[in-house]
Give the backbone structure.
Amino acid sequence: MTLPVRIVLWSSLIGVAVLPLALVVSLGFGTNHLPLLLDGGIVQAAVNSVTTSLVAAIGAVVIGTVMAFLLDRTDLAGRRPLKLLLLTPLFVPPFIGAIAWTGLVTRGGLVDRTLGFAPWEFYGFSGVAFLLTLHSYPVAYFVVAAGLRRIPADFVDAARMGGATPLRTQIDVTLPLIRPAIAAAFTLTFVSSIGDFGIPIIVGVPGGLDTLSTMVYRYLESGTVDSPLQVVSQIGIILLVLGVLGTILDRRMSKRVVEFGGSGREFDTLSLGRARVGVSAVAWTFGVVATVAPLAGLAVRSLLPAPGVPLTLETITLDNFERVLTSARTINGATNSVVLSIGAGVLCGILGLAVGLFTTRLARADREPMLLLVLLPQAVPGLVIATGWLILGRYTGLYNTGWVILGAYVTAFAAIVVQTVRGPLAGMHSSMEEAARIGGAGPFRAHLDTSVRLALPAAGIGAIMVAVTAVRELTLSVLLVSPGTQTLGVVIFQYQRAGDFNASSALSVILMLVGLVVLAVFGSRFTRSDSETGKLNV
């Protein structure tokens, strides 16, 4: 029974993880559009992508590392609520974060209305790098925090007994031991930022900053080039190579992790002493400015009837909410998003649970290749996945249907469930399966009745997270959308591109609340890191 299931599983993985990416590579190498791309500014776009991502990765690692030390090792005031506050950007889609910040600091934004001036020329390089950093540091925090938890307290005790101060101990002992985790966090955030689309298209393009991801969208939407799929496939190859290199580097970093011995005793909380008040104030100020302030700007813009209208009690209105909630476009987008996200959650739940079972409990020679195959799309920019499904849709007759969007969702998000279930499955004792075998169950049935049944709650959590992620998604949908298949993310994007900022803000507030409710209900489960991989279990 195991062999047929394994064959079906491998066929499914090849269909959703390999075939779309292989089509991008095949089509990209089929012709030479390099002169056209050079004339179109691909070199500058690549430089912009790399530099903004590099700045973002460095900033995210610095912030994430400081967060890990302060929140996990010190007596910082209000650590638990501050952690949830600081992790809020993880549950706010980047493109909504971009809309929120433009409603805060740009001309006509909340600061401009309140203080009479716009504090920042936000559009362009600085805004893109800042927002990429803001939406990347939570991931860096999880990776570094997982590395911190692996260091035995005995190491710190030995340094303290040798006369080192608490600060010197952290610098001389702890920091060198988490360098692999810091390097892994840098790689993950860099590759993730390279493929981001929402932030560059909303904040970068108005400031004249083109990136590889916005080039893909521009060539597909402009209709100014022949064979646009071939053109964007060649851009996709560049993004794909960066993603693959990131995956390889990340796996090498994880294999370089050293297993520590020790008593397993938990760390004593490091007292900040007289600096506690000041450090706590700075941390809370950063949390409020980074998360609450832009959302306040988004909310204010959603309550105004039109851009440029001053904020007074008389001008506050709920008309924008009424308009977007009753719009046929919004209703259609909400319906499509709910159906597609539920479908993606169910399919990813089944596929992720099966992959988790075969890569933890049914160890074979193909265990590592199977795991790498399902995790690879996590490091591949969403626009490459979308391009692959766009090509696949042309070949299969699924073009201009919701099926290609659903397929892209499964490709991109199946790893979420795999990461969620692997921890519980790996931690189960084999005695339960042995007892089932003694009771007469076959090998596969024994796993179904024990491991799979006990891992179902984790798979359910992963499936919910897939659904919540998909319902707010933009990057995949924006290339695959067709008349009648718009998703909520695309509807918000269309409002923003049309200059209807108040409507886009109102719908963004509604969609953002979905993520915050999930954070409040499932926050403790979603913010747990996998101690083995250092990856976020989302």
